[in-house]
Design brief:
Its cofactor is Zn(2+). By secondary structure, the protein is α/β, with parallel strands linked by helices. It folds into 2 domains: 289 residues, Aminopeptidase; 86 residues, Urease, subunit C, domain 1. Helices cover 27% and strands 28% of the residues. An 8-stranded mixed beta sheet has the order 1-2-4-3-5-9-7-8, with helices on both faces. A 4-stranded mixed beta sheet has the order 13-12-11-14, with no helix packed on it.
Length: 383
C-alpha cells in the first residue's frame, strides 16, 4: 500500500475515544461491545485481580495472525493503534476487505488489565509477564499460551512500548518505532521462520522510512527462552516484536500511534497478498540496532557547584499515575559531561550555575518542576 493512503485511512478511522498513555479495560469496554456486532468478542480468562481478559476474532482467511498488547500494563500505544486498525478493517468503505478475506486475526487488546489499571509494567503479583513464558506461573501468561495453542497462528505480533532513552543506532535520531525478529536458539541463528519475520519487518521499515527517516531501530536479539517472543519463535512460528517509541514532543504517543498503525496495516497488506518464504530478509539486517543515547532534557555547559567544572545535566521524566492521569515528573539523573548523548530538548547554561526553586544548585536525584537558568525561570514540564 502507499503510505499516503494508509495515513489517510488513519485519519478516517482513528478511534478518537482513546487518547494519551492511560488505557484500561474501562476505556475499551464500550468499544468491544460495538465490535461484537461485527466480530467475535469473548472473555478468554481472568487476571490476578479477577479482571476480564478479552480476545476478539475477525476475518475468515487461511493466514492466521495472533496479536497481543499491554502485556506490560503501562505500554498502551499499540492498544490504541489496534482499535484504529479494527475500525479500518471492519468498515466496508475502507476498501481493505481483501485483508480479512486472506487473513484471520485473533487479538488480545489488553493482556495485563491489572497492570494497565495501576499503570505498571508488571502484573498484580509483581511478575513481568514477558519473563514468564516457560514457568507460566501467572494466569495472564496461561491465557496467552492457551490462545496460542487454540488459534495455531502462522504469525505472532508481540506489541509493546519503549522508553524515550532509545536511539536508532548511536545517532541523534530517536527510535520512534523498533522491531525484533526474536532469536529461537542460543546461537541466534537466522532460521527459516526468523527470515520470514525479518522480511515482514523489512517491508514495514521501508514504509516507515518515508515518514520517519532514520527513526527505526531493532533490538538486540540475545536469546532468552523465558521471553514470550523467543518461546513462540522457538516453536517455529514467525514472531515480530513491535515497540512504540518516542517522537519529538509526543509524550502522549499520539504521533507514534499513527506509525504503529502504518506498520500494522502495511504488514497485513503484505501478508495477505504474498507467499512469504523469507527470501528478502536481508534488508532487516540493515536496520540499526537500538542504543540508549537520549535524555528527555539536557542542560549543557552548566557550572558544577562542587569544583566549578563545566558539566551537563541529564533529566529523565518519571511517569506517575495521579487520579487517572499520567504525569511526567522531571528528575535529574546525571550531572557530568554527556558527550555522545542527546536531549529531546536542550538548553545552554552558558557556563553559569543551574538553581532550583530555593536558589540552590541542582543535584542528581532531585525532582525539579522548573530550574533557574541565566536568571530565568525555565519549566521542565511536558507541554
Amino acid at each position: 500500500m502507499k503510505v499516503e493512503d494508509i495515513k489517510s485511512l488513519f485519519l478516517d478511522y482513528k478511534e478518537t475515544s482513546l487518547y494519551g498513555r492511560y488505557i484500561t479495560n474501562n476505556h475499551i469496554s464500550s468499544l468491544l461491545k460495538e465490535i461484537g456486532v461485527k466480530a467475535s468478542v469473548e472473555v478468554i480468562g481472568k487476571s490476578v485481580l479477577n479482571d476480564s481478559i478479552y480476545g476478539l476474532k475477525i476475518g475468515n482467511g487461511n493466514k492466521r495472525i495472533l496479536m497481543w498488547s499491554q502485556m506490560h500494563g503501562n505500554e498502551s500505544t499499540t492498544t490504541k493503534a489496534i482499535f484504529d486498525l479494527l475500525n479500518t478493517l471492519l468498515n466496508e468503505k475502507s476498501d481493505v476487505e481483501y485483508i480479512l478475506e486472506a487473513c484471520t486475526l485473533y487479538i488480545i487488546p489488553i493482556l495485563n488489565p491489572d497492570g494497565a489499571k495501576a499503570y505498571t509494567r508488571i502484573n498484580a503479583n509483581k511478575v513481568d509477564l514477558n519473563r514468564d513464558a516457560q514457568d507460566l506461573s501467572q494466569p495472564e501468561s496461561k491465557v496467552l499460551r492457551d490462545a496460542f495453542k487454540r488459534f495455531k497462528p502462522h504469525f505472532c505480533y508481540n506489541l509493546h512500548g519503549q522508553r524515550t532513552i532509545f536511539s536508532a543506532g548511536t545517532s541523534n535520531k530517536p527510535a520512534t518505532v523498533s522491531f525484533l525478529a526474536p532469536a529461537q536458539d542460543k546461537e541466534c541463528a537466522i532460521t527459516p521462520n526468523r527470515k520470514i519475520a525479518m522480511e515482514v519487518i523489512g517491508v514495514m521499515n521501508t514504509a516507515l522510512q518515508k515518514v520517519i527517516p532514520k527513526q527505526v531501530g531493532v533490538y538486540d536479539d540475545a536469546f532468552n527462552l523465558n521471553c514470550v517472543g523467543d518461546t513462540f519463535q522457538s516453536e517455529n512460528v514467525p514472531t515480530i516484536l513491535f515497540e512504540a517509541g518516542h517522537y519529538y514532543n509526543d509524550y502522549n504517543r499520539e504521533q507514534t500511534r499513527e506509525y504503529i498503525y502504518v506498520s500494522l496495516l502495511e504488514s497485513l497488506d503484505y501478508i495477505s497478498k504474498n507467499v512469504i518464504e523469507g527470501n528478502n530478509y536481508e534488508c532487516y539486517l540493515q536496520i540499526p540496532e537500538n542504543d540508549k543515547c537520549f535524555y528527555d532534557i539536557i542542560i549543557r555547559n552548566a557550572k558544577n557547584g562542587t569544583n566549578g567544572e563545566i558539566v551537563d545535566i541529564g533529566i529523565l521524566y518519571q511517569e506517575k499515575l495521579v487520579n487517572g492521569v499520567v504525569n511526567f515528573i522531571p528528575k535529574i539523573e546525571k550531572i557530568e559531561k554527556l558527550s555522545g548523548f542527546y536531549g529531546h530538548k536542550e538548553f545552554d547554561a552558558n557556563e553559569l550555575g543551574v538553581f532550583d526553586e530555593d536558589d540552590l544548585l541542582v543535584k542528581a536525584g532531585y525532582e525539579n518542576v522548573f530550574v533557574i537558568l541565566n536568571n530565568e525561570k525555565i519549566s521542565l514540564l511536558v507541554k
